[in-house]
Write a structure and sequence with these properties.
113 residues, Glyoxalase_6, eight-stranded mixed β-sheet, Glyas_Bleomycin-R_OHBP_Dase, VOC family protein, 2,3-Dihydroxybiphenyl 1,2-Dioxygenase, domain 1
């Protein structure tokens, strides 16, 4: 398994106010979408999100998003190495995702085709 990119998650109070700063910082245009009760913006290596506390806490409970070339293979390898599946692979607005708890306790979202 090779991790192709890491996306940092950042909760913000006002998504509309935060996006221009991150667009300027990264030189990227934000891609906005909604998922699991929160509003999100993907800007370069950042995933900004805002929403009601309960929904935002579920998103904030994941340390980072790890992009992989083969999601099924990555999940299989991580589980074989001791990770536990928190949420199995499922479709999202940006591809497919699975959430795993690593043996050390960290929770990570894996995304890929």
């Amino acid at each position: 398994m090779a991790i192709e990119a890491v996306v940092l998650r950042q909760r913000v109070e006002d998504l509309d106010a935060a996006v221009p700063f991150y667009e300027k910082l990264t030189g990227s245009t934000a891609s906005r979408f909604a998922f699991a009760g929160v509003s999100l913006a993907s800007v370069g290596p950042f995933l900004l999100f805002s929403g009601p506390d309960e929904a935002a806490q579920r998103v904030a409970g994941v340390a980072a998003t790890l992009a992989v070339a083969d999601l099924d293979a990555a999940v299989e390898e991580a589980v074989a190495a001791g990770a536990a599946v928190v949420a199995p692979a499922s479709p999202t607005p940006n591809g497919h995702r699975a959430v795993l708890r690593h043996p050390c306790g960290g929770v990570f979202e894996y995304v890929g085709p």
